[in-house]
Design goal:
Elements: E1 2-6, H1 10-23, E2 28-32, H2 35-44, E3 49-53, H3 63-71, E4 77-81, H4 86-94, E5 100-102, H5 107-119, H6 142-145, H7 150-160, H8 165-172, H9 176-189, H10 195-205
Helix pairs in contact: 2-3, 7-9, 8-9
Length: 216
């Protein structure tokens, strides 16, 4: 697995890189301290996924994420931020993040969050889950329990990774109207009315949305 890690503090970068390589042995971690450098790296190399700080120089609020997603729409992104209020988390999910890890999380929670992310699950701060506890590991039966067709399961994976309908239809070679039908079925199965709610509910269920790092 190849990971793009972006943060403007070298101490945080080093700590994160050490944690990531410990949790996902054999992974290659590339780092950047500025958004433009991260986008340049992402355009030049292929990454399985990115971890992005929202507080980068020259950015404000959710703008770092939206700019990154516009430039590299096919790279799944997990946000890593010192600001983790409910509004910011929901805005990040709405902008296409497939998870959100607060920098303020206690060390054990931080490591557990990274472990979940690298096992293929979504991590969202418990404050956003209305008191619900996240599963401590991906559930292999969670997708089966939704009773989706194989194609709907593919669409769900891409939806949870933040891909737009247009990107999904290009990736799967199907029409956008067909994608919309599948997205509607996925949202219904996840008991969600929006993509953001779908990500939250998938996190509650412990759904895995990527291959485990060990098999990469």
């Amino acid at each position: 697995m190849k990971i793009l890690l972006t943060d403007d503090h070298w101490i945080m970068l080093d700590a994160m890189k050490s944690a990531l390589t410990a949790i996902a042995p054999g992974s290659e971690v590339r780092t950047a301290t500025r958004l433009e450098d991260a986008i340049r790296l992402g355009a030049a190399e292929s990454f399985d996924f990115a971890i992005l700080d929202l507080g980068l120089p020259g950015t404000a609020g959710i703008s770092a994420l939206t700019t990154f997603r516009e430039a590299l729409p096919d790279v799944p992104v997990v946000v890593f931020s010192g600001t983790s209020n409910r509004a910011t988390v929901l805005a990040a999910l709405d902008a296409g993040a497939m998870g959100f890890i607060p920098k303020t999380a206690p060390h054990d929670v931080f490591l557990a969050a990274l472990h979940l992310v690298f096992s293929g699950s979504i991590y969202i701060p418990h404050e956003v889950l209305d008191g619900d506890e996240l599963p401590t590991a991906p559930r292999s039966d969670a997708i089966d329990a939704l009773k989706l067709t194989p194609r709907q399961s593919e669409v769900m994976q891409m939806l949870l990774m933040g891909l737009s309908n247009k990107r999904i239809c290009r990736a799967l070679g199907i029409t956008e109207s067909t994608v919309k039908i599948h997205v509607t079925a996925v949202l219904r199965a996840l008991r969600a009315t929006t993509r953001t709610q779908a990500v939250i509910n998938a996190a509650r269920l412990g759904i895995r949305v990527a291959e485990p790092a060990a098999s990469a």
